[in-house]
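Hey L., structure's done. Input below.
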Amino acid sequence: MPHNTDLISLIAVGLGIAFLLGLLAQKLRLSPLVGYLLAGIVVGPYTPGFSADQDLANQLSEIGVMLLMFGVGLHFSLKELMEVRAIAFIGAISRIVLITALGWLLAWFFHLPDGVGIMLGLALSIASTVVLLRTLEEYRLLDNKIGRIAIGWVVVEDLAMVLALVLLPALASALGGQDTTGATANSGSVGNAMLVTFGKVGAFIAMMLLVGRRVIPWLLERVAGTGSRELFTLCVLAVAMGVAYGAAAMFDVSFALGSFFAGMLLHESEFGQKAASDSLPLRDAFAVLFFVAVGMLFDPAVLIEQPLQVLGTFLIIVLVKAWLTYFIVRRFGYSKSKAVLVAVSLAQIGEFSFILAGLGVSLKILPQDTHDLILAGALLSIIFNPFIFSFFYRRHKDALTAKPIDNAPLQPDGDGAYRVPEDTGDHTIVVGYGRVGSHLAGLLQQQGVTVVVIEEDDDRVRAARLAGIVTVRGNTASEPVLLEARPETAQLAVFAIPRALEAGEAIARLRALNPSITVLARAHSEGEVRHLLQHGADGAVLAERELAHSLNEMIMATPPYRGLRSKPAAGG
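Output:
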């Protein structure tokens, strides 16, 4: 049996190098995306040494696109978008139109086809959701008005790009690319192609709303009832991939739109969170392969052959986009500090830009050298964005905590409304608001205990806050997140999350911050119990053991066994 297959080589070498370079990027306080893209360059055809199979990489990247869009749909919150709908819709669409127009002007100036300019402008106009969320979480701005505006803005951009991905094949011939729908470049046939495309998309959406909204939750409920975690995870992935494939096969709709709708429908069901958590590992793995595949398409020679064009692309992303965003946010009446931080947080491009650029090349609208310019601009913007944001955050940090002096229509009086009050003390920290943590927090509340929850999942954060519990959003492994819960004045901490390794590291850090705090944790094996105790927990509850004790107590309370309670054990 041969072991040196192209697929295994691509996955093994690609993921291995992506891990090493992603870890290095993390250590350098950069986005891991930088490492993943550099890994693709290393294994790509434009650098010496190992060269992975590009066709296989492209196929794997399609799976990555499906799962990325599935994740976007799973976390799509119409309610949060509506809170900032005015600035998000007007701001995002205005910036897309203006940057796309700028791309068209640049193409005209350099005597390039109109389609090249439009594709270039579209790719440069949108920000990376992955990079944005990482930045906002690091600086604890997810619950700030800055975070809500930026997230709403990027969600609208994502939705606009989903629409663009649907329409581009129909418009390919008009943009100077390859005809994929039978349309020619005249306006009548292009209009007909667009009508046909909208009709297919409409039919797909109607089917998903009428059938998918009922069938998918029903199917998940039945599979969840089997009690098999692997079957549930397999069902989630089958739904994501199956809907995407069915959308393409039956309605000629892009994989991206199909998987996005599958995620949206799962988000509305009661199993949405379980689906998100169970599919996350595989989704992350294929997302990494997607970025590796994108890196493989990049020719580093463009940095030497076209330095001025690369610099110009970078400046459009960082300066022009930031200035336009700042101007729009200020026009809505927000303070200078908020406008600056929203602007710099969105001054980068990422995953959707790669998807658009790849589609442009496949449709023969975008030449390879322009594609390389987009990738170069993305790499540089992702590398420099954390440093730029850090610089402006330090300059405007004090203004964010000051009382607002502007009269913006959506400006809340309390950007820190969800922060733990400074006078909080003698409280209990509950890490995790899942099935165990939510019940525990509720019981403690009923007994008059002051509770502070730490939770990273958006929907669970909202649920905890609706229950009147002060909640810190984020991962407890992050020290800023832990510090926000004011552990130095807490009496007790309970780790209700099922991830013992992560809990152990957080317990050790918590113990260093407050040596006198009592720490309890949840475990699922004797090994996890030992791990938690070794890292500073005062007690670890083994769920299965406690369940057995509880069932034993209930059995002994029933009439047939009530008299056995006082009998000594055999051999005693």
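Residues 225 and 414 are 43 Å apart (CA to CA). Confidence is low (pLDDT under 50) at residues 402-417, 566-572.

-- N.
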